[in-house]
Write a structure and sequence with these properties.
This protein is mainly alpha-helical. The protein has helices spanning 2-8, 10-20, 22-54, 57-87, 93-123, 129-154, 158-181, 187-200, 206-211, 226-258, 260-272, 274-296, 300-331, 343-372, 376-400, 407-432. Helix 15 runs antiparallel to helix 16 (407-432).
């Protein structure tokens, strides 16, 4: 029937031929999966600009720090929950169902812990207690949503994950716009908007998916998590913590030493690179399960092809992000330079962030591939090396030169990852050629 339809309608043959082309197939594969992260990136960009233009420099710094702390918790969640969930793709159905049930129960504990961490860290930036509690609720909801999103990707339900992303972005932007329209934009009201947006973003997962999270008599006890901890998550968690030192040591150093207002300057550069950074954080949820399945099937060439496609997609987003940044600097030079932020320093910070993000685009696909092979212990050692490098160089540059120069420590840590991780990938290829 399909062949007859193609003979009757030549356009169907053209469409079928186009889908078979590698570049079209690549666009189709990543188009839906990246639409959600891009929407969130745009929403966070808009929210950051609103905070920068309409609230105090210290409040902007607090919001920028929140966008460091919550992704860190998301990384912890990915290590504790997402990594073992993705590996279930290579297991039999009974084992996979049992492990996912355990992870669903564990996600409630991890989300609660994340909320406490976020609230405590925001209190350290001199946020009011009520605001810190709201930020903690936002962090807990974000971690729970991230797990549901990872589970949807593992099950191949990319559309549901994208719908959650887009709904969150829409609710956040509409909520902040409403506050501006009614003249009620304050930090507490913005915090409430964040909480409502993250709660609303759970709706696309459906009541059935949310109900699965609730403990039941038939679900395995949390002690069933221990084998996953022993085999996978202790190493992936160590890697996330050490990677945080590599990527965000400057954020904690500058915020705790110089205050959120000073950190706001460094956050402006990161704001320009947010689209590329968010996509780099989201693509592993899509590609790691695919790599894991192909490796389990012995299709090593297919797994390596996914690595190349990952890097191509991330590189394209980086180029688009740089072009957007250039357009803003050329046509709207004062948009992100306000409240005492020197434009020259902003340019220097942006140059640092472009270099940092470019190195991340280079090395992230290799790291995800090694995760798909289950080589978390080696990745933890890489993270230890890069984290120590970043921590040392960042601290030296901060105290010897200043906050802007501290970004050099982040770049040094990223380069250390590249120098360590590519030999590991080559060694695995040689061993399995």
């Amino acid at each position: 029937m399909l062949a007859a339809a193609q003979r009757a309608f030549p356009l169907l043959r053209v469409a079928d031929t186009m889908r078979s082309q590698p570049i079209v197939r690549l666009f189709y594969r990543y188009g839906l999966s990246t639409s959600g992260p891009v929407a969130i990136s745009a929403a966070h960009f808009a929210a950051s600009v609103i905070f920068l233009r309409m609230l105090s420099a210290a409040e902007f710094g607090q919001f920028a720090f929140l966008l460091i702390v919550v992704p860190f918790c998301l990384g912890l969640s990915g290590a504790l929950l997402g990594a073992p969930a993705s590996l279930t793709r290579a297991k039999d159905e009974a084992t996979a169902s049992r492990e996912i049930a355990t992870l669903q129960k564990a996600s409630l504990v991890v989300s609660g812990a994340a909320g406490l961490i976020v609230a405590a860290l925001m209190l350290s930036t001199s946020a009011h207690t009520g605001e810190a509690v709201l930020f903690g609720l936002y962090g807990a909801g974000s971690v729970l949503r991230a797990f549901l999103r990872s589970l949807a990707n593992v099950r191949g339900d990319i559309a549901r994950a994208a719908a959650s992303d887009i709904l969150y972005a829409t609710l956040l932007v509409v909520g902040l716009a409403g506050l501006i329209g009614f003249g009620r934009l304050t930090m507490p009201h913005a915090a409430v908007t964040l909480v409502l947006a993250i709660l609303g973003s759970l709706v696309p997962f459906g009541w059935r998916h949310l109900r699965e999270l609730l403990p039941s008599s038939g679900a395995p006890a949390l002690l069933s998590y221990m084998p996953m901890w022993r085999d996978v998550t202790r190493w992936s968690l160590t890697g996330v913590v050490l990677t945080e030192l590599t990527t965000n040591a400057h954020a904690y150093f500058v915020t705790f030493v110089s205050g959120p207002k000073v950190f706001g300057l460094l956050a402006i550069g990161a704001l320009f690179m947010r689209p590329a950074s968010l996509v780099l954080g989201a693509l592993p949820d899509i590609d790691q399960p695919v790599m894991t399945r192909r490796i389990a099937q012995g299709d090593f060439k297919g797994a390596f092809r996914v690595v190349k496609e990952f890097r191509t997609a991330a590189g394209a987003v980086l180029v688009a992000t740089i072009a957007l940044s250039a357009a803003i600097l050329i046509w709207f030079p004062g948009l992100l330079a306000k409240k005492g932020f020197d434009e020259t320093q902003v340019l220097i910070v942006l140059a640092f962030w472009i270099a940092i993000t470019a190195v991340r685009v280079l090395r992230t696909p290799e790291a995800v591939f090694l995760q798909a092979t289950g080589n978390y212990s080696a990745l933890a050692r890489v993270s230890a090396w890069s984290g120590a490098t970043s921590l040392l160089v960042t601290g030296l540059l901060l105290f010897a030169v200043g906050p802007v120069a501290s970004l050099g420590g982040v770049l040094a840590g990223e380069i250390a990852v590249v120098l360590a991780i590519f030999p590991l990938t080559r060694a695995w290829k040689r061993a399995h050629a």
